[in-house]
Automatic annotation (TrEMBL):
Record-linked InterPro entries: DUF1996
Domain (DUF1996) ranges: 45-302
PANTHER family: DUF1996 DOMAIN-CONTAINING PROTEIN, PTHR43662
Top-rank taxon: Eukaryota
A Pfam family matched in the record: DUF1996
Keyword Signal: yes
Keyword Signal in annotation: yes
Residues of the signal peptide: 1-21
Annotated keywords: Signal
Name recorded for this polypeptide: DUF1996 domain-containing protein
Amino acid sequence: MIWSGFALTALIALFAQNALTQTGSAKGSDFLRFACSQLVIERTDPLVNPGVIPSSHMHQVVGGSSFNATMDPAVIDPSTTSSCTSCKMSEDFSNYWTASIFFQSPENGTFIRVPQMANGRLNGSLMEQQGGLTVYYMHAFSGTNKNVTVFPRGFRMLAGDPTLRTKQSGPVTICHRCLAKNERTSGGSGAPCSSTDYASFPPKPCPGGIRATVIFPSCWDGKNLDSPDHRTHVTYQPGSALAGDKCPSTHPVRIPQVMYEIMYDTSGFADPKYYTNGKQPLVYSFGDPLGYGAHGDYLFGWKDGALQRAMDALGTNCFSETCPVLKLQSWENTVACTKAQQAKENTGTDTCMYALSVL
């Protein structure tokens, strides 16, 4: 899978602009970007396995503290039922979650969870991130119309397909970047999901870690807050993973494009002996030893009007974590926002784990 020429060029331009923004040389950009610390690691999934404890596989979750196994939108509004958020934006009580990665020992077959790490020195606060992930909300990258409609209460969606075990054609929406040892702090450079990234797990040691990217759809049908597969009520712009200023007639409402970056610390699992004869030792918690099934889950929970104000202000004096229409909380409060597991389980990274759906 490769990006279309336009999509890759657009995203390279986006990140080039972002680099200028970080040094104060640019006045704005087309995205918010902020870090979220770890809320909980456990086997619950209110999107795919609502009410099931434990769910089919382990997830790493960030965001509002009201996250639980059900999250019935008729009962729970994260923006009012959460007592805290593990995201830097203090008005964002959304929940964002992805599958954990395990190292399977080629020697004895046991599993150890791969720890997460901070997302590089892109700006000061991201370096302080305690695991978790980095969230982007992005505008259109083509056309002149930058207006988007923010998600309504109860909105949720899933990007990726956990059943995939082969490379797919078309624009890349999820990828893995293999970082060299000297890229650990920076998190790598250049556009994500470029031709040098992998849809699967990288087939080589990654001593600087793996940066996984999940890009969500940017068009909504305007009617359904969810769908049976959690994907068909939204879609990507035709022919591109990146949002443009047009959407298909079946999904006419342009929404902010959400993107995650998740950093996995594979430095302890980078021995070349683990990568021989076309094999590699990593496996996603849902039993995928190839990596093609990587996915991300999203549940909207911003305070009334906050995200819309930010999206309307993008490109002026609002960019990345510098956005006067939003409120930032301290890193002490961000990291302090955690919650107890509902599915009680040892999730340490120094012990063998059994939280795989295939076991």
